[in-house]
Structure formats: structure tokens, C-alpha cells
Amino acid sequence: MPRPLDARALAALAANPGCRRRALLDGAGVDKSVLAAKLGSPAPFGQSQFAIVRGNSFEAKVKADGGRELLRLIGAEEPGEVSVPDLAAAGPEGRTARTALALREATGSGGWTLLDHPLLALEVAGSPVYLEPDAVVVRPDGGWTVVEIKSFPMIDGSADAAKVGAAARQAAVYVLALERVAARTEGARVAHSVVLVCPKDFSNVPTASVVDVRKQRSVTRRQLDRLTRIDEIAAAVPEGVSFDVAERSPEELAASVECVPHQYAPECLAACELAFHCRSRAREAGAVETLGRSVRAELGGLTTVGAVLAAARGEQGDPADPAVAALRRARSLRAEALATAGLPGGKALAGTEGPGCR
Amino acid sequence: MSLISMLARMEAVESGRAQPLATVRHRRLSERPLVLVPLTTAGEAGAPLGALVGTDPEEPRLLVVAQPRDRDLRFAFLADLAEEVLPYVDSFTDVVEAAERNEVDPESGKKVKVEVELCADAPQLIVPSRAGIEYVRLLGRSTRFRRTAEQDPETPFPAPPRVPLLGRWLTHFGERARVPGSSLLLAATDLLNRHWATGQSSLEDQHLGALLAWIDPTEGQPGAEAALRAEVGRDAQGQLLCPPAGPATDPAFDNRLLAPAIERYDRARQALGAAEDGEAADRGLGELHAAERELRRLVASQLKPTWDAVWRAVGLLRELPEGSRVEDRWTRDRWSFTGHRDRVTAGEPPQPRRDDAVTAASKLAAREQAQGQLEAQEALDDPLVLAGRRLAGEAFTAEVVEVTMAWTESKRPAPRPLLAVRTDDRPHLGEKTKVFRSLDGKPQAAEFVRHEEDGSLVLRVLDRMGRSREPAEGSVPEKGERISWTLFEHEQRVGPKLPDPEETPWTHGGPPRTDAVELPDAVTPEDVF
Fold first, then answer.
1. Tens of pLDDT along B34-54?
2. Region annotation Disordered: residue ranges (chain B) (predicted)?
3. Which residues of A touch B9 (CB under 8 A)?
């Protein structure tokens, strides 16, 4: 049973667009946390039940009073009658159809409508992915706005930038999915700004802020367009490779994973279940990227730690290569300074006595 | 990351041990720092779960909030924290020395020297990580506007007496931590990262346990292996061997250990409240105490390893000799501390939620200046930092090969000796580029004149040679001397003066309102903090 992608996973793709391994595994619906556990590097992600309870109770509070509280937050002066259609239906297809119908009805109604946990479908890599935003508000003028409810606080009008960024990337996926529905609905328009609702300061009182997600939307869309090409990645995978986490042995799985190249960077540790596995492989290979994504840029053609150190020591590399020359100078300056300070790692240099600067 | 520190990281990868990034210590370490290891409750904005705090590594004070959602227990925690932090801060306020400060005389408009007090030393808070610094700020923000019963008898939930004051001090520490090179509030990870390069990325370096595994490995384990164990190693019960340095806890700890213990505590409290006779009350009380003890044990189990790690970091850093210009930056910290002490004594209101335009601009300017100063001072104090600047072409070390005396062509000729120097470095020198060296701790300027055909450089010394025709003794470099020159200035210039807040132009919001008093945060019945 493949694991369906969710908005978080789709948004995380944007964090490391070049990683074929992640693209293929996500596209194929492989449960990466189970896979990582089988490979012996379980993902360190988890959520505290305290955070879950608090998140749920906050969301309930925001949606209280038939949605009027939420509409007041997003600036409806006197929302009057708020329609909150029942979106229950059998199965994901039924629910998306129900959502689309409710959106169509709401757009023509000329009033305020709150869709509580609508279900949207987005075609990713040839199969539908179902997405469930916290809420979508339909305005009297036919505008659709995505609402994200988060339980991190907004203190004195500002919130943690990293968390806001993650919420914006997630909301951008919803915007994309909504646009597919809007294309088939007359008079509908999806706002490229989403409403982020957070607790105010240290209280439980909600406050809202408008976040522009145009950039995240275009990045994610580009990513998703690329994802549709995962059949190409898959074509490069040898016959017989399987990611069946229930059936295959860890060795077989490891071999299968190895067939698809990864593009590890330290940022993966916060976003991908397989990151610890890829990190250990990248370290075994001595890849310089394990020290940071930017490291590669300064080292020209040198891609491994061994090659860099050998070049710096003058054992390898073309001295005319500016990267090699810079490394050699860096090493000799470093050694000179360490020797000056009498620390190990420095070599004694003639004529150096004490630090030059007093 | 500079090429030199990148190289150091790669050497660390190869050797399995962290490599030095500095040869001296670039931050002040107090003889008696106050270490604070806080833990917070997941999902709640600044609802503390507990803390270890104290100045003695052997005797931390353990503070635990048995039910983090209980307002009274939270206030009790903050009151206890205030009881630890404020006496520590107060112990530095009374020991003062006389100092002078330039002030503008309001009547004459002239600059005059005013005799003022300067605290002889200042308190120092050390937290495990950057998240800890943010948490200190958050605690400060959440408590400084609280009202005590004495300030406002009408307030629905009065805070314990010293809590708002604690908030003001924590805010000051948090604010000062944003000034580059300051040492009032430090994170152990920042301290270690400044002085050592590990074989991992700077993102992974934020994990205190992993960082120490590279710098100070136990049992000679290779760094990467030991760091991995610190990052993900778990015991048979699925708990991390090295608990996170906080303030966030590990979800597995929350779900498997903490949640059941808090539930047990809640049940015991309910049972005690519902007890109808003395015997049941006794039983209930016994169970409540047992539940509380268990919670204290659990929270301590998460805090103690981090507490020890912070002190280990302090110990490692104490082994490095202090850079000679660190004292200068610490004096600025003492000024900052004294200034806040005076504001508190004068009964000024707590720091506002948002700075007015002039205050914000002057803070930014001060931080920029401090950044420039820090970069210059670190390079002057430490040949290894200087090596990075030399590699970047911003400094060079050269041997004097010839000194030619020359003078200005004015009526009273002043010395302008020409130095021919030889260096392997490649400084970015243009015509008349100014370079500086440190002479008795003060910068001496020279300008670049030309490249000689034999590859040497000619510099003209410009100042610090005294008033007479012959330069003062020791003020002109001698042949054979090896001197480091920098292309950057050693002391930062102060930017143009900002207007008084009352003169703020309308483009910047106009003068700050004086009638607007910062109100305490609104309190609601389901308020979580």
C-alpha cells in the first residue's frame, strides 16, 4: 500500500529540488520513515502529544462560533450569515467532488462561506495526491483564500521566520491545488496571499496575518512539473529494483536505494526521513557537501575531502588551478599561525617569532 | 565559510577530532558565570517545564513545573528563577569604580566629562544553545509587563513580586546578546563553534552533544561516530542517550515518560481535592508528593546531561588564554550592565515591545560598529584569525628590508619615513591604500606607495611619530622587523549622530508618544501563559 503524499512532503521537495532519490521515493509513494528504520537510520522526527493537543484545541477555538471568529480575523467587517457546508462524503474521491461542488455553490452565492477541512486533489507524478487544508474561505466577490492555522505564537506581531516559511510552503501547495478547481469554476479567483492564524503573544487568542506565497507557489509548481518526469528517473533504475518495505530485506532495500542517486546536504536533516542514511553514505564517500552546501562552490573540481586535503598538501592537483593554489596558501598560512601560537598542527617556519600584531 | 575554516573542518574529518579555529579565547568567561538550562513545554509559547540554574557545577538548583498549564505553578517557577537570578545580578551592582563619560552640557552645549559609576564586573549568563538565548528573550518578554499585586491591586492574576524585574533583566541580557562580541549572555554552542572546527556542518554544530563529541571525545572515539551517538543514540526504552540541549524536549520523552507522569500528578491532585476525610487526604497528599518527585526526577534526567555539557564547554574554553582585546569588549558589557542597573534604579518603565525609530536606528548602528570592531580585534589578537584575513588579501605580514627617512615639505617638516617591505602575502593594495599596524596597542597608519621591481612593497608611515622633526624612539619600524599590516581600520568610526527621539521626522513615525503606556498582556481565562 503506497503511502500518500501530503502537503508537507510536497513542500519539502522544494527544499532540495535536485535530489532524485527523494523525488523517486516520494513519487512512488514509498513510506520513507519505515524505509529509513529498515536501513538502520530511523528518522528522528516525531511530534509531542502536548503539541498535538494544543494545536487541536487552538484550531477548534479559531473555528468556533460558526466560523464568524475566523472571518472577523481575516477582516470581514460584519460577516452576517456564514455558510459552513457539510463536506462529508465517502472516500477521498467523494470528498474532493463534494468540496468542488461546495466551492462552486459558494462562489455564486455572493456571501461568505467557510470550508472546514476541504479535500483537494493535485495530480503529482501521474497519480492524485489528496490535500486537506485547515480551511478555505470564499468571499462574496468569488475570491478563494487558504487559511492555515498554526499553534506557534505571534509575539508583538512577528513569529519565528523558519516556522512561517514552512507554513507558507505548505499553503502554497494548497493554493496550487485550489487553482485546478478554480480553473473549472466560473467567477472564481484564488488569492496568492494566504491567511496565517496563530495565537497572539502568550495567550490563546487567535490573531491573523496575511502571507504572500507567490514565490513559494512558483517554486513548488516548478518542482511538481519536474516530478512528472520521475518516469525518466525510474527508467534509469535497473530492472528488479524494489522499495517494498514490507517484503524486502534491509540489504536488498539498501541496494535498491543505492541505485538512485541522492543529493545530500545538511539541510536534509530537518526535512527528509532518509537524511541520516544519505549522510552516512555521503560521509563514507568523503563528499565535501557534508560540511555545507556552499562548500562545493569554492573548491572548483575537488569534490571529496581526501582530494581537497591532498591538493592542499601538494600531493595532488594542478598548482595552476586557482582553487588548488588558494588551498595551498590557506594551508601554509594556517600552519604558520598555529606554529606561531605553539599549537600542534603548525610547522615551524623560519623567521617567525611571536604574533606580528601586538 | 572562509577557505581556512573549511580546510580546518576537513582536517577534522580526516583526524576525527575538532581542529582549532582560534589560538586565544575571544570571549570573556566570568570566574563565576550563572549557567541556565531551561526546558519548555512543546506547543506552548514559553510555558516552562523546568530548569537547572546556578553558579556551582556541583550544585545546580532544580526547578520543575509539575503541570505546565497551571498558572500558579508557572508563577511559582518564575518566582524561584527570580530568586536565583536576581541575587546573582545584584551581587554585581554594588561593586563600582569611578569612570568618566562624555556628555553634552545642556546649558552650554559643550562636551564635558562627567564622573560616573561603572560596575567593576558584570554578571554572565550561559545557556546551552542559541535556542536557549531566544528562550531567555521570550521569558523576558513574557514577564516584564506582568503586574504584581503591589503595582496594581486590581490585576486579576498578580505575578509574584520580583517576576517583572526578572523579565526586565532577562530582556536586557537577551538584547545585549545581539551585539557582536558581547559576553553578558552566551550560548555554549556559539562559544565552542567560535574556537573549534568540527568535521560536520554548521547546522549539525548547533547540537551541543555532537559538538562536544568532536571537541572533547570520551574514550578516544572518532568524532563522527561519537557525534552520531549523541544525535540519535537511544536506550532500550527508546529514550535519547544524549537528551536535546533544550529548551525543546524530545517527543519520545514527552509521549512515553512525561505525559503519563503529568497525568498521574493531575489525578493525585484531583484525588486530594476530593478527599472527604483526613485519612484519604493523607493518602492523597502522599500520592501527590510521590507524583511530584517522579516528575522532578524525569525532568532532571533530561536537564542534567546538558548542565554537565555546558560546564564541560566552559572548562574547555578556560584552557585557552584570553585574547588581549577581550577586556576592552567586556568593559563595554560592563557599561551596558551599569546603564541598565541605573535605569532600573531610576524607576524607568520596562523596555517597550517595540523600539522607537531613533532607538532602533542607534541599536543597529551600534551593532554594526561592534561587528566591525570585533572582526578587527579578533584578527589583531589571534594569528590564526589574521591568517584568514591575509588569505583574503585584507592583511599581510611583511619583513622590513629597508628604511629610508623622508619628511614633509612644509615649514615644520614632519617625518614620513619610507619602508621597503617584503611579503609572500597578496594584499589588495591600490595607490595610497591605507594600511595599519598595532603600535603599543594603538593603530599606526601608513600608505602604500608602489611596487618595487624586486617584488617588495614601499609604504610611507604617516603618524604616531611625535611632534618633532625626528621620529620618537620605537615609532618607526626597523630593518629586519616582521610586522603585520591590515587594510582595515582597528577602531571603528562612530557614525553621524542621530537626532533626539523628540526630533524624529514624520517619515520615521514622528516623535514617540509619551502618553502611551505599555499595557500588560491581556489575560484571558484559558490563557496558557
1. 999 999 999 887 789 999 999
2. 489-529
3. 291
pLDDT in tens, B233-266: 999 999 999 999 979 999 999 999 999 999 999 9
DSSP character at residue A350: T
Separation CA B72–CA B47 (nearest Å): 12
CB of B141 less than 8 A from some CB of A: yes
Q: Total structural domains in chain A?
A: 3
Burial (0-12, 13-18, 19+ Cβ within 10 Å), B180:
middle
Q: CB-based contacts of A230: which residues, under 8 Å, 6+ apart?
A: A23, A24, A27, A28, A125
ipTM, two decimals, is 0.89
Q: Indicate whether A41 and A54 sit together in one domain.
A: no
Does A131 fall in a domain? yes
Q: Any idea what DSSP says for residue B499?
A: P
- Whether residue A120 lies within 8 A of chain B, CB to CB, comes out as no
More confident residue, A143 or B493: A143
Do A102 and A15 belong to one domain? no
Q: Cβ(B375)–Cβ(B388) under 8 Å? A: no
Given the C-alpha cell 583574503, which residue does it identify?
B392
Would you state the pLDDT for residue A204?
83
Report the CATH number of the B380-486 domain.
Answer: 2.40.30
Q: Long-range contacts: A276-279, Cβ < 8 Å, 24+? A: A276/A36, A276/A41, A276/A42, A276/A43, A276/A44, A276/B232, A277/A36, A277/A39, A277/A40, A277/A41, A278/A21
The number of C-beta contacts closer than 8 angstroms across A and B is 186
Q: Are residues A248 and A302 in the same domain?
A: no
Residue A232 lies in a domain: no
Q: Determine, yes or no, domain membership for A31.
A: yes
Determine whether the interchain pair B391/A202 forms a contact, defined as Cβ–Cβ distance below 8 Å. no
Q: Measured between CB atoms, which of A44, A204, A329 is closest to B524? A: A204
- Dist. CA A97–CA A115, nearest whole Å: 13
The model's pTM: 0.92
Query: Hey, of A333, A336, A352, A358, which one would you mutate to test binding to chain B, going by the most B CBs within 10 A of its CB?
Result: A333
Inter-chain touch B383–A355, beta carbons under 8 Å = yes
Q: Looking at beta carbons, which residues of chain A come within 8 Å of B484?
A: 355-357
Smallest Cβ distance to B20: which of A151, A343, A351?
Answer: A343
> Which pLDDT tens digit goes with each residue over A3-51?
666 777 777 776 677 788 888 888 777 888 899 999 988 888 888 999 9
Q: Are residues A252 and A313 in the same domain?
A: no
A186 and A143 in a common domain: yes
* C-alpha grid cell, residue B426: 597578496
Choose, out of B206, B397, B489, the residue to mutate when testing the contact with A (most A CBs < 10 Å): B397
**Using 50, 70 and 90 to split pLDDT, how confident is the model at B295?**
very high
As to burial, measured by CB atoms within 10 angstroms (0-12 exposed, 13-18 middle, 19+ buried), residue B409 is: exposed
Between residues 348 and 367 of chain B, which touch chain A (CB distance below 8 Å)?
353-354
pLDDT-based confidence at residue A125 (cuts at 50, 70, 90): low
pLDDT > 70 in chain B, percent = 98
As a dihedral over the C-alpha atoms of residue A315, residue A318, residue A319, residue A322, rounded to 10 degrees, the angle is: -120
Average of per-residue pLDDT across B27-35: 97
* Domain boundaries, given as residue ranges, for chain B: 3-95+121-252+296-350, 380-486
Provide the pLDDT for residue A142: 87
* Percent of all residues in chain B with a pLDDT value above 90, rounded to a whole number: 76
Q: Are residues A241 and A281 in the same domain?
A: yes
List C-alpha distances in Å: B23 to A271, B313, B466. Answer: 36, 16, 34
Residue B251: closest C-alpha in chain A: A48
- Name the residue with cell 529514550: B239
pLDDT value, residue A356: 34
A190/A298 same-domain check = no
Query: Are residues A254 and A183 part of one domain?
Result: no
Record: contact B391-A330, CB cut-off 8 A = yes
Interface residue B14 vs chain A (CB under 8 A) = yes
